[in-house]
Design a protein that fits this description.
The protein has 148 residues and is an alpha+beta fold. Helix content is 41%, strand content 16%. The protein has a 4-stranded antiparallel beta sheet with strand order 2-3-1-4. The longest helix has 11 residues. The two termini are 15 Å apart. It binds guanosine-5'-triphosphate and magnesium ion (MG). The site of guanosine-5'-triphosphate has 11 residues, from helix 4 and strand 4. Keywords: ATP-binding, Kinase, Nucleotide-binding, Transferase. It is an enzyme of class 2 (transferase). Pfam families: NDK.
């Protein structure tokens, strides 16, 4: 099954939105297969956002991401990479639809509460980076109530 890496950023943790993010993915019908609270440190965060290292906002992004604990999760289910991105909403909260996490809870791109992998390839890369210990395989009791 497809998996994605979802992370509640330090602002989301500080604002008590971890449960809200989990709730939305649970209610959608996805399966949680890994989760931890972490203080990843600068090196890890620079690896995670390596693609953006040349951007002007990169130093600020790393400072922001390194300012407190993050909640790291892997969610599994049909089209979860793309659907997860839809649930997060557009990067810039001004463009995020109401009903999305960023649309409902954010006003600033530099404090946008959550991260989600942008492709299956980057999901697999990010899951390996954040969960080198591996994920949990388990049978969820409602599987046949979520998928035909
Ligand atoms: P992530 O899920 O966090 O990867 O966001 P994204 O995929 O929607 O956007 P992208 O990967 O392009 O950027 C990563 C993060 O950098 C964003 O979520 C923002 O927190 C931050 N960021 C992106 N663009 C800007 C910008 O123009 N200004 C500032 N201050 N931050 C930005
Ligand atoms: Mg991104």
């Amino acid at each position: 099954a497809e998996r994605t890496y979802i992370m509640v950023k330090p602002d989301g943790v500080q604002r008590g939105l971890v449960g809200e993010v989990i709730k939305r993915f649970e209610q959608k019908g996805y399966k949680l297969v890994a989760m931890k609270l972490a203080m990843p440190g600068e090196e890890m965060l620079k690896q995670h956002y390596a693609d953006l290292s040349e951007r002007s906002f990169f130093p600020g992004l790393i400072t922001y991401m390194n300012s407190g604990p993050v909640c790291c999760m892997v969610w599994e289910g049909r089209n979860v990479v793309l659907e997860g991105r839809k649930m997060l909403g557009a990067t810039k909260p001004a463009d995020s639809a109401m009903g999305t996490i960023r649309g409902d809870f954010c006003v600033d791109v530099g404090r946008n509460v959550c991260h989600g992998s942008d492709s299956v390839d980057s999901a697999n890369h990010e899951i390996g980076l954040w969960f080198p210990e591996g994920i949990i395989s388990w049978d969820k009791a409602d599987a046949s109530w979520v998928l035909e």
